[in-house]
Design a protein that fits this description.
369 residues; alpha/beta; TIM Barrel; 8-stranded parallel β-sheet; 13% strand; globular; Amidohydrolase
Length: 369
């Protein structure tokens, strides 16, 4: 199995032991982490990216200490599938795993934050009408927490960009086979998280136009790519990426996750830097993309995400979230609240009044550092 050069040849991911820790920036800002992963035993590609063979809810809480994390959205990680039973339903095992993690967090024994308050399951839409009972099984396994599903569609003619991390056919979101299953998602009250590469954004634009009543959440701002055959072309391709986001934003039921730039797909100097980059540098590198996406979609359709632990190659959880807060610092308090809390709560239907970590009335004024 061939892995992307940036994954296999680079040094180890940032150590989780806190060696790169910096002071918390804006500690009072409440935060719903709209996108992170957990796994009891990670797939080879995810372990290579993150340096974490195992990453569970208590690991997330420990690394988030100091930030005012109030809740999170678990995103499928292709882990803990059922070992037997009907093939179509084996992925339901991951939802059972994620719901167990969420239930442990909801016990309150580990603090007021609610990890996995919303769950997003992995599905294979190409199974067509057979997907409906699978979705119903995920809903049952989620015990009221399942809010959406996701299927990766990342593909490029240059296989080195993705390698063995994701294996999707070209044009997946446009295919009749995919849409035969996709049509069952919206009617069950579920959203769809879309993961693809920036050169493929026209595919999700077409999907959103074909299914205007289904909420679609664009992961990682469409994954701007600066590796493989796109190396050195981030600046050149920025206007193309911006144009595609403008087209996608015309569909009112599309949200976008602000983050995901700290993995291997872009070409930022902060990735795998030694010593680890400070959040000021990371924020400076990410800001043009994040501010542009927020300007296009508006704060009420944009939600910040850590994409942890996949982002470990750029920094600790503390540093990644510090960088997001630095990007958001120029916005008003109301705008920051939408970016860090409101949009995620709206999209994933979270009851803010039921979140214990929001019970305090601490302010949200940025702290200089």
């Amino acid at each position: 199995m061939a892995w992307p050069t940036a994954v296999s040849a680079a040094g180890p991911a940032v150590s989780p032991n806190g060696a790169d820790l910096e002071p918390i920036f804006d500690p009072d800002q409440a935060f719903i982490d709209a996108h992170h992963h957990l796994w009891a035993k990670g797939r080879e590609g995810l372990v290579a990216l993150s340096g974490r063979p195992r990453f569970l809810f208590d690991d997330l809480l420990r690394e988030a200490a100091g930030h005012r994390l109030i809740a999170s959205v678990y995103i499928n990680s292709t882990t803990s599938y059922r070992a037997d039973g009907p093939v179509d339903f084996r992925g339901v095992g991951e939802t059972e795993f994620a719901n167990g993690q969420a239930a442990a967090s909801a016990s309150g024994l580990f603090g007021p934050a609610r990890v996995g308050a919303a769950l997003v399951a992995g599905v294979t839409c190409q199974i067509g009408d057979r997907l409906k009972p699978v979705l119903e099984a995920h809903l049952a396994a989620g015990n009221g927490r399942l809010r959406g599903v996701r299927q990766n569609a990342a593909w490029d003619a240059d296989a080195s960009i993705i390698g063995g991390v994701i294996n999707s056919p070209p044009g997946l979101y446009r295919s009749d086979a995919f849409r035969a299953g996709f049509r069952h998602i919206g009617p069950l009250g579920l959203s769809f998280d879309a993961f693809l590469l920036s050169p493929q954004l026209s595919d999700v634009i077409d999907l959103a136009r074909a299914f205007p009543d289904t909420t679609i959440v664009l992961n990682h701002m469409g994954n701007p790519v600066g590796t493989g055959r796109y190396a050195g072309k981030m600046k050149e391709r920025f206007p193309i990426w911006k144009r595609d986001l403008q087209a996608l934003a015309k569909m009112p039921r599309v949200y976008v996750k602000i983050g995901g730039l700290g993995a291997h797909l872009a070409e930022f100097k902060s990735y795998r830097s030694d010593p680890p980059a400070h959040s000021k540098q990371i924020a400076a590198e990410w800001r043009p993309y994040m501010e542009t996406a927020i300007e296009i979609f508006g704060v009420h359709r944009c939600m910040f995400e850590s994409n942890y632990p996949v982002e470990s190659g750029t920094g600790s959880y503390r540093t990644i979230v510090n960088a997001l807060k630095r990007v958001a610092a120029p916005f008003s308090a109301e705008e920051r609240q939408a970016l860090f809390v409101g949009a995620a709560a709206d999209c994933y239907r979270l009851d803010l009044a039921a979140l214990p970590a929001l019970s305090s009335d601490r302010g949200t004024t940025p702290r200089a550092s």
